[in-house]
Amino acid sequence: MADIHSNLAAFQSVLGDVAVRGGVAEIWCLGDVVGYGPDPGQCIELLGQYEHVCVAGNHDWAAINKLDTAYFNPPAAAACHWTAQQLTDEDRDYLAHLPLTIKKGDFTLVHGSPREPIWEYLLSVGEAEENRARFKTKFCLVGHSHVPLVFKYSEGSRCSLSPLSDGEEVVLGEARLIINPGGVGQPRDGDPRASYAIYDEETRMVTLHRVAYDIKATQKKMIKQGLPMPLVTRLSYGM
Ligand code: ZN
């Protein structure tokens, strides 16, 4: 899963859905646990209750001043400054020690892209091509764009790009792939439901899931905390 973005209601709904499906051995979190939403500390704490690994995202770094918010748009920067004030020393320590890249068997895990783990958005075939040789494993998992999709590399020709919708299965075969499971806490593909995927090691399949959550509850908290309205309203549309 990727981009929880301090959205506790969305994160809890995803965890509930995971439990209903029989649970997972480990959560692979692709960064941006915090930023934008109203519950940064609670999201870090809840993630910590699960067996998990997590890479650093741009918002995770910005919240602890490891990255300059001058590169953020104004609402994102405002939310980042608010987030920074909410974090405990323990939260800061957790975020400060997140690695940029994690290898898990056949998978490389990064937030943005293999060549630029913090910043690059992988949304086009051209960008995926430029990253082809930048990871050594067969598969790569990314977040950052909050758009569920899969890039499939084929020998001797350009890679292909396919969006992933609810219930769609990606079979792990011979082709190298980059998979984005979409965003938990701030989906941006026009579907406001939280997005994540489950990898089944036995069937070698990655299945995308969308989960409805109490968007209004998150929005209420954001308004109460004075977080920027564009960030509040976009949750209704998943954009
Ligand atoms: Zn993000």
What does this structure look like?
The protein has 239 residues and is an alpha/beta fold. The chain is built from eight helices and eleven strands. 31% of the residues lie in helices and 21% in strands. Helix 7 (215-224) runs antiparallel to helix 8 (229-237).
Key features of this structure:
239 residues; alpha/beta; Purple Acid Phosphatase, chain A, domain 2; six-stranded mixed beta sheet; three-stranded antiparallel beta sheet; 11 strands; binds zinc ion
**Oligomeric organization of the protein chains:** single chain
Number of helices: 8
Gyration radius, to the nearest Å? 17 Å
User: What is the level 1 CATH name?
Assistant: Alpha Beta
User: Regions with pLDDT < 50 over 5+ consecutive residues?
Assistant: none
Overall structural domain count: 1
Strand order of the largest sheet: 3-4-5-9-6-7
Question: SS-based structural class?
Answer: alpha/beta
Q: Could you give the order of the helices and strands?
A: HEHEHHHEEHEEEEEEEHH
Number of strands: 11
N/C terminus separation? 18 Å
User: What small-molecule ligands were found?
Assistant: zinc ion
Major sheet: 6 strands, mixed
Compact overview of the structure:
The chain contains eight helices and eleven strands. With 239 residues, the protein is of the alpha/beta class.
Break the fold down into its secondary structure elements and pairings:
Layout: H1 8-20, E1 27-29, H2 40-48, E2 52-54, H3 58-63, H4 74-86, H5 89-96, E3 102-104, E4 107-109, H6 125-130, E5 139-141, E6 149-154, E7 157-163, E8 169-171, E9 176-180, E10 194-200, E11 205-211, H7 215-224, H8 229-237
Parallel strand pairs: 1-2, 4-5, 5-9
Antiparallel strand pairs: 3-4, 6-7, 6-9, 8-11, 10-11
Helix pairs in contact: 7-8
Bound molecules: zinc ion (ZN).
